Amino acid sequence: TPQAATITLHADTPGPTYDKRIFTQFAEHLGNGIYGGLWVGNDRSIPNTRGFRNDVVGALRDLGTPVIRWPGGCFADEYHWREGIGPKAKRPVKINTHWGGVTEPNTVGTHEFFDVTEQIGAEVYISGNVGSGSPQEMAEWVEYITSPAGSLADERAKNGHKAPWKLPYFGIGNELWGCGGNMKPEYAADVTRRYATFIKAPAGTKIQKIASGANVEDYNWTEVMMREAGDQLDALSLHYYTVPGGWAPKASAIEFGEEGWAETLALTWRMEELVTKHSAIMDKYDPKKRVYLAVDEWGTWYGQDPGTHPGFLRQQNSLRDALVAAINLNIFAKHADRVKMTAIAQMVNVLQAMILTDGKKMVLTPTYHVFKMYKPFMDGTVLPLDIKSPWYNKDQWTMPAVSASAVRDKAGVTHVALANADPNRSITVTTTLTGLNASRVSGQVLTGPAVNSLNTFDAPNAVVPTAFNGAALNGGTLTVTLPAKSVVMLELN
Ligand code: AHR
């Protein structure tokens, strides 16, 4: 039976801004997320600028990467910033106790990180050390980065950077309920208040303080944080990973059939419920939505690629991950009044990465291509939509087959994103456009021959966007034939 869905696009009642920070990236000192993936130092065989590889930096620049969160993750609460400044040869070599027990040379520290974010064109989101650091250490780091004067500013200048840097976002620890200190929510809220007190921006500047938020459906965490510390915060985070098959043993990133596809996408849809419920709690304490929700860790978490270090969280990325990305990005549109920042985990070589590297080689993942397709969403105005979609079911996994979102960009162009989770059937989507006079439609589609189609170093262009000609405009109606297992981005003028 032919599948059909209907959408009403309310261009006449524009919603909130789709904040470009929803495309924030996360780069942790974990596996080859930094070393090898971003930083190659003096390795002349890989073209680099002051140690950062040009191919990866260029690809991230092309994405318009708005913000990068660093240095963790769990690593953040054991990171001591002083160990990462000054002459590299004198920096202590530590053990990365969270991620594989390997050595951490501290070669990439504050100066290097600011350098690479400038090369990429991104803003900086630093996560401070609450779990094993003091408020003084945190305050001094902030002063070292931002202060125009004083001995910490002098030290910064001596280390090569006279001008203060901009520090728009600062995380007050990470996962304080777990690797950040195993705290109970009441205690974490008090600790957050205390540390937040000492994060001070120089006159005329502002540092947004982002508190460590809930794990998945820990609604009590959000409740306590908002009640006890909400007045001190600019944002509260939320972490939710898509983990098909559970934590142990983890499922394969590429060896799966339709059931693994359906389970992964159904679990991704949980984001809708999580964001709705956490937002409702925030609404109770912050009805004016001053404090935003920062979903600063999301994405798929599979077993590590065969032959790779289990502590490095290196995983391949397939068409399934492209759908995961699109479904999440569409969910965030619906909640853009509260969700102003999100960060997929992680940027390079770790979990649901944009980019994979191996020595000199680099490949852009299907997830990268989805981010590129959604680039016009950055700071666009969300256009609300109602969808009636057929359901896609496989075994116990069930979800709407079609997921969608739309924005109008600053130039007045409308962008409509559509994803079809059904791997077997195309779907005809009939969209009624209210308050929109468009006469031309064009677009791109991302799909592949199999649910686990992927890009490899040898075949890097197996899953890449191609021109889409399955959309037609007729008066106020847009008709789109969405191929099975695809992501489509349309532009309406
Ligand atoms: O992204 C990997 C890890 O997942 C992060 O370090 C931590 O915050 C989360 O548990």
Automatic annotation (TrEMBL):
It catalyses: Hydrolysis of terminal non-reducing alpha-L-arabinofuranoside residues in alpha-L-arabinosides. Keywords: Carbohydrate metabolism, Glycosidase, Hydrolase, Signal. Residues 296-486 form the Alpha-L-arabinofuranosidase C-terminal domain. It comes from the Bacteria. It holds the Pfam family ASD1_dom. InterPro entries: Alpha-L-AF_C (IPR010720), ASD1_cat (IPR055235), GH (IPR017853), Glyco_hydro_b (IPR013780). The keyword Flavoprotein does not apply. The keyword rRNA-binding does not apply. It is an enzyme of class 3 (hydrolase). This is non-reducing end alpha-L-arabinofuranosidase. It comes from Sphingomonas endophytica.
